[in-house]
């Protein structure tokens, strides 16, 4: 659907974008991420034909943007960061005007405008002056103008920027729906947006693409080791022994391990309750109640795969089950998109905090 081949735009002093190279298949929703000034808008403006590359070629559905710009642009719907709206017009008259500009045949215009209004939830606002629309509705109208001429490829430059959280969710949902019939490239600063709607992520930094991957493969691409957090019920030493004797396991780390020399909390609670019980047997039955609700001993661990990428969850399950050590919780840990973004776009060490992965047990 889209081929961006070795495209550069040089503004001097090494600013601009350099050798951008990627392609998009029909139906993909690609998130385009990068810090301020990384080159997202420049790249999007070249794809939409508003800016000529210094070097390189862009094809949209087989049409070269430099040799056949009219045909290539016909395939694209573009929502720039600031939607090109005319505040004095009504929603309907604006969309009719845009339909004319985009050469939508006169007999189809009413139908196309009606479809765009329906798809973007603008019903009931056809006669409203654009100036009086909320920012969220202006953004809906921006999306409506982008799809009016039935393009295959949508280029959306920060479509949720400046919206409140409710509007963000609504616009995200609309983009998700538009993605059912369009190929979408959207730039954003909001990282969870990528996980919510995109099936691929492109990260650009200082004018160069530094990552092109599906969200579920990010960890593997970044050389992440498969890691699982576990809570297992049973005696600590036995649990550690079972885990350490599993060949597929690399490192076993205790989380919140008791300090050396200190008794295990559950065991010491049990001992003190038992002695309290014998001392207060006749006076009160409180200790007996407390004893029955004492927490069972469990150990929290972080376990990594010996083979880095190998999924160790099944091996853990079968080994601990056969040893009669119940797993109370098991969760795959993975690098967050924030960690990866920071790692690739700053010199600062990435935050090593983990977040839940997509494929939790
Ligand atoms: N017209 C221009 N003249 C000179 N330099 C420019 C021009 N437009 C962009 N640049 C420079 O090119 C680089 C990329 O800018 P661009 O606006 O594409 O980044 P961006 O990723 O869209 O940033 P933001 O997230 O802040 O919108 C920056 O260094 C910017 O200063």
From TrEMBL:
Keywords: ATP-binding, Nucleotide-binding, Transport. InterPro entries: AAA+_ATPase (IPR003593), ABC_transporter-like_ATP-bd (IPR003439), P-loop_NTPase (IPR027417). Transmembrane segments: none annotated. Residues 2-231 form the ABC transporter domain. It comes from the Bacteria. The keyword Nucleus does not apply. One of its GO terms (molecular function) is ATP binding. It holds the Pfam family ABC_tran. PROSITE patterns: ABC_TRANSPORTER_2 (PS50893). Belongs to the ABC transporter superfamily. This is Vitamin B12 import ATP-binding protein BtuD.
